[in-house]
């Protein structure tokens, strides 16, 4: 009995091990959030596949569309029109009216009329915005007549959740949808009741509402503040009866449409950008207006309470893990039977995956959202591991048998040879009974003298068909060159062992065998004794292994492509974050705290960029190709920046954060700043994360008097500590301490990468820890100490304009991302450049031909026409113009090739090479430093800049711009131009002033630069004073 149990356990061992292992790995992957987008996509697909529900006639939408806005002639609509609309609706006696339009400020004419309507309409609910930039409700309405209209957007920009309520200043605020639903249900004698005094869990009619948690369904660590629920949309846009503003004002609606119903008023015009993507949205045409989303939330609450319509429910985390474990077991069990039923197993795996999708869809129809992609990953992973293990196990057994047989093969041959010497009769007996194919042929003419039964069985010939014939006559050798090589070896060595060749049977089947051959004397002549062993099955197994390796290589390639794509997607918004934070830093702020916070934002953004770069460097570390990128930097500034990043976090936990470094510490050093920053951040993050009380101290020790110095860093904390058993594996990849596993934070990569970086900088890292008392990490690096006088001067200089006596350069910005265009525009325009923008390569071509820019900042990945094709087209047309003698040598616009610099979030070397081959002059990576931007422009256009003089004052600029203008400077411009400039200055309209500055001729560079500087400093008074002097 015990032996049978052991045999069964041994038989199912791979299933019992693979199932929980793969399930655990999949759970770990899902907890990182990598599968979140896929689970959202599956939920969106289920929504679109679900049969549409009937329209909810209890809710009517009064939509303000494009024709209404054109007819009214302005936006927002005036209080007078809104008052007429509400009066007209009141006549139809709706149960409640929801006004999804801000009215915190009057929009004349008609404000007094609207106030009267508000006062006389108790069933009216107005709106406010409480998140982000708050917008107050209409002041005349009471708190019971206000609901907030904030929406919850997921990371992919889609609306899948809705707020029921939020707490603001200790008070519970209802959303617009929830407010309307509760008023409607109150008339049906249905009220809200708490469940067992639990917060955010309520009975409402036939439904129970439970608060959305951050890990519900496919979400991972989603924002779950307030009381949220997952939206159960009724269908696509247009699921509710909708009438236009004009229809109501002109009384073209049926009285029964609105009476005793909920009426929602809001804009549905695409031009007002109040459209949102939902699970039903595939493009802008299928996007929902905000008022429709509020209607869906209201309908969901009412339908659940009155009709019992199901809400979207989810399982708890343990149930989802068991769900993954179950499907992992299915995959592992099927994979273990692969050798016996290969085709059936493959088909069954696909059927199991299809069953998972089908069960999840049916559950969704009943109001349950079950995760799909994590179980699919578990099925595929466990089946692959189980199949691979089974194949490898059987291959190992086969190799063992083959090795055992090979070990005895020589002994058998030797025994057969001795038997031949003793007796031809005994030799013949052994020859015929051998299980291996054996042939004896004449060395002189190659004709077969004798073959055994095994040879005849495996080749399919009869003895009379073989004896007396040569191998070429029987067409046994597939490759005749293999036979020639064999005889060449026999000629030199007299014997050959384990010679692999392919042969052909009588039926034409091609097989593989290994051959051992020896020249012997038989019947007084030299003969060739050949013993072969068929290895066709082994070669087939090797081919399977080869295909598995190719699949692994393909997976590695997909990983690299994924990293490249994610790097590009993350760098694009980071370009705007870092760029605009630098622009804000250039604006003088009287509040020192604001400047500090802005520095923290910028430094954190740069740290995030370095993290993205580290993810890309991880593959280089694994391949041993990570390099040291040394640069000169201010060590004091680095330490102060890191202190600012962690000061607030330490204060929130009630910890003391202490930074200690002495005066002899060098200020300017040369090493890899990014890697040193990453190591310090990793160690400090760990210290704060695992310290609950006490302090964290960072010490830096070094000598500024040495040219080549050793810097020593110590990070000491009073946290939980690390046991001696875990210290040995602390720097292994993906290994976490018991405290780290308990906190469920981190990936176990921070310390291994930190050690690699420290070793690359010429040092090493060590740890000393006492369990329950704290931990101290120490590391040292080798640096070059640098004289920082010149560096400090350079750090204080900032470009504020172009020097005089230069042309006004035309710069074209080509980027499909509006934020990136605005960033470059705001950097270049104030300095005196003429700037235009294009959304894609096709527009860039048109502007190049008509406007003739001096330099183009070209994005690479764009719709319609990408940057590669646009650059090739420009270079091709430049060459055609040159060949056809169409260039006017006196015209600067055409005689020189336009400078094209690629500006892309791609960071791989092959992307740079492709950009240069397309015809670009240079390549700059997003996010970029503005200094790099200006350096490239100066390099290719020969620009001369004006710099801010920090030593005098932060706001002062070059005297060349500061000098006052005279009336004579305005003489070059027309009276009409001067009048327009005066009016724009009086209104403070900087956009019109910049447009007028573009009309100034190249010869009046001082006028253009000075007006630009005055406008940037908001000195409109200087402009008006100058024009008054001209008029007088």
List the helices and strands and how they pair.
Layout: H1 2-11, H2 13-31, H3 36-49, E1 59-64, H4 66-72, H5 79-91, E2 96-99, H6 111-119, E3 124-128, E4 146-148, E5 152-153, E6 159-168, E7 171-174, H7 176-187, E8 192-194, E9 201-204, E10 207-210, E11 227-230, E12 242-244, H8 245-249, H9 255-258, E13 262-267, E14 275-276, E15 288-289, H10 290-307, E16 313-314, H11 317-335, H12 342-365, E17 368-369, H13 373-422, H14 424-433, E18 438-442, E19 448-451, H15 453-459, H16 463-466, H17 471-474, H18 480-493, E20 495-504, E21 510-522, E22 525-534, H19 536-586, H20 592-623, E23 631-634, H21 635-652, E24 656-661, E25 668-671, H22 673-689, E26 695-701, E27 708-717, H23 724-727, H24 738-743, H25 750-760, E28 765-770, E29 774-785, H26 789-795, E30 799-802, E31 810-814, H27 818-828, E32 834-838, H28 841-851, E33 855-858, H29 867-883, H30 892-895, E34 899-904, H31 909-918, E35 922-925, H32 930-941, E36 945-947, H33 959-962, H34 975-987, H35 990-997, H36 1005-1016, H37 1020-1031
Parallel strand pairs: 1-12, 1-13, 2-3, 2-13, 3-4, 16-17, 24-26, 31-32, 31-33, 33-34, 34-35
Antiparallel strand pairs: 5-6, 6-7, 6-11, 8-9, 9-10, 14-15, 18-19, 18-22, 20-21, 21-22, 23-25, 25-29, 26-27, 27-29, 28-29, 30-36
């Amino acid at each position: 009995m015990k032996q049978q149990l052991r045999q069964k356990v041994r038989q199912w061992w791979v299933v019992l091990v693979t199932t929980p292992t793969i399930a655990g790995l999949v759970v770990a992957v899902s907890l990182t959030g990598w599968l979140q987008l896929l689970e959202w996509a599956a939920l969106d697909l289920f929504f679109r596949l679900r049969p549409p529900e009937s329209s909810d006639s209890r809710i009517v939408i009064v939509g303000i569309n494009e024709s209404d806005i054109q007819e009214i002639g302005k936006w927002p609509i005036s209080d007078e029109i809104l008052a007429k609309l509400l009066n007209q609706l009141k006549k139809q006696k709706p149960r409640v009216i929801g006004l999804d339009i801000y009215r915190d400020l009057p929009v004349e004419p008609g404000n007094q009329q609207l106030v009267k309507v508000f006062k006389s309409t108790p069933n009216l609910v107005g709106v406010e915005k409480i998140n982000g930039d708050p917008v107050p409700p209409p002041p005349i309405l009471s708190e019971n007549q206000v609901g907030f209209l904030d929406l919850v957007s997921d990371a992919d920009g889609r609306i899948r959740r809705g707020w029921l309520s939020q707490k603001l200043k200790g008070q519970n605020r209802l959303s617009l949808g929830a407010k309307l639903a509760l008023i409607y249900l109150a008339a049906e004698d249905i009220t809200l009741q708490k469940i067992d005094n639990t917060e955010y869990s309520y009975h409402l009619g036939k439904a129970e509402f439970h608060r959305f948690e951050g890990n519900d369904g496919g979400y991972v660590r989603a924002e779950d503040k307030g009381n949220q629920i997952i939206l159960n949309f009724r269908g696509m846009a247009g699921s509710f009866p909708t009438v236009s503003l004009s229809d109501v004002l002109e009384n073209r609606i049926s009285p029964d449409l609105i009476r005793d119903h909920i009426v929602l008023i809001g804009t549905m015009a695409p031009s007002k950008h109040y459209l949102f993507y939902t699970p039903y949205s595939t493009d802008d045409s299928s996007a929902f207006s905000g008022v429709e989303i509020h209607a869906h939330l209201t309908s969901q609450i009412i339908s659940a309470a009155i009709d019992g319509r199901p809400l979207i429910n989810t399982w708890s985390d343990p149930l989802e893990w068991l769900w993954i474990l179950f499907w992992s077991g299915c995959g592992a069990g099927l994979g273990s039977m692969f050798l016996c039923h290969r085709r059936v197993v493959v088909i069954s795996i696909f059927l199991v995956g299809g069953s998972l999708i089908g069960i999840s869809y049916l559950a969704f129809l009943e109001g349950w959202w079950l995760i799909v992609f994590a179980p699919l990953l578990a099925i595929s992973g466990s089946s692959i591991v189980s199949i691979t293990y089974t194949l490898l196990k059987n291959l190992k057994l086969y190799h063992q048998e083959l090795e055992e047989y090979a070990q005895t093969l020589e002994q058998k041959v030797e025994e057969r040879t001795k038997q031949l010497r003793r007796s031809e009769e005994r030799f013949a007996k052994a020859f015929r009974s051998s299980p291996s194919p054996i042939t004896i042929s004449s060395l002189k003419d190659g004709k077969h003298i004798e073959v055994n039964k095994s040879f005849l069985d495996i080749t399919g010939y009869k003895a009379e068909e073989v004896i007396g014939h040569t191998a070429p006559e029987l067409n046994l050798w597939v490759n005749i060159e293999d036979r020639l090589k064999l005889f060449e070896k026999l000629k030199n060595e007299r014997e050959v062992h384990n010679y692999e060749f392919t042969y052909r049977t009588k039926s034409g089947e091609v097989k593989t065998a290994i051959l051992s051959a020896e020249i012997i004397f038989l019947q007084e002549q030299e003969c060739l004794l050949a013993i072969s062993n068929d290895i066709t099955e082994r070669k087939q197994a090797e081919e399977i292994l080869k295909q598995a390796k190719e699949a692994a290589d393909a997976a590695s390639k997909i990983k690299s492509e994924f990293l490249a794509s994610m790097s590009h997607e993350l760098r694009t918004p980071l370009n705007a974050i870092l760029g605009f934070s630098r622009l804000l830093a250039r604006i003088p702020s009287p509040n020192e705290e604001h400047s500090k916070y802005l520095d923290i934002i910028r430094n954190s953004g740069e740290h995030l960029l370095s993290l993205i770069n580290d993810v890309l460097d991880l593959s280089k570390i694994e391949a041993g190709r990570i390099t040291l990128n040394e640069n000169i930097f201010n060590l004091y500034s680095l330490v102060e920046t890191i202190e600012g990043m962690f000061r607030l976090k330490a204060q929130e936990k009630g910890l003391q954060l202490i930074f200690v470094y002495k005066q002899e510490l060098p200020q300017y050093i040369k090493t890899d700043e990014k890697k040193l920053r990453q190591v310090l951040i990793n160690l400090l993050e760990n210290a704060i994360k695992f310290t609950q009380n006490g302090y964290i101290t960072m010490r830096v020790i070094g000598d500024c008097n040495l040219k080549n110095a050793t810097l020593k860093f110590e990070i000491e904390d009073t946290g939980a500590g690390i046991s001696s058993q875990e210290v040995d594996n602390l720097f292994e990849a993906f290994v976490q301490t018991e405290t780290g596993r308990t906190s469920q934070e981190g990936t176990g990569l921070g310390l291994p990468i930190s050690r690699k970086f420290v070793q690359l900088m010429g040092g090493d890292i060590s740890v000393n820890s006492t369990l329950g008392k704290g931990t101290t990490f120490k590391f040292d690096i080798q640096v070059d100490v640098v004289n920082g006088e010149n560096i400090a001067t350079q750090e204080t200089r900032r470009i504020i304009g172009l020097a005089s006596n230069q042309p006004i350069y035309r710069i074209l910005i080509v980027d499909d991302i509006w934020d990136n265009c605005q960033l470059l525009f705001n950097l270049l325009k104030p300095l005196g450049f003429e700037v235009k923008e294009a959304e894609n390569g096709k527009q860039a071509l048109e502007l190049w031909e008509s406007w003739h820019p001096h330099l183009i900042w070209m994005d690479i990945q764009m719709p319609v026409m990408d940057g590669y094709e646009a650059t090739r087209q420009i270079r091709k047309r430049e060459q055609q113009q040159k060949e056809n003698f169409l260039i006017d040598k006196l015209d600067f616009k055409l005689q020189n090739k336009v400078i094209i610099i690629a500006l892309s979030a791609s960071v791989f070397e092959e992307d740079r090479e492709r950009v240069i081959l397309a015809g670009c002059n240079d390549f700059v990576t997003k996010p970029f430093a503005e200094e790099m931007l200006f350096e490239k422009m100066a390099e290719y256009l020969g620009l001369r800049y004006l710099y801010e003089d920090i030593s005098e004052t932060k706001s002062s600029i070059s005297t060349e711009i500061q000098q006052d203008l005279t009336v004579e400077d305005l003489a070059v411009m027309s009276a009409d131009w001067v009048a327009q400039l005066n009016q724009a200055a009086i209104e403070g309209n900087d956009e019109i002033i910049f447009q007028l500055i573009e009309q100034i001729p190249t010869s009046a560079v001082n006028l253009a630069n000075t007006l630009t500087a005055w406008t940037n400093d908001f000195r409109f008074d200087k402009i008006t004073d100058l024009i008054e002097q001209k008029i007088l």
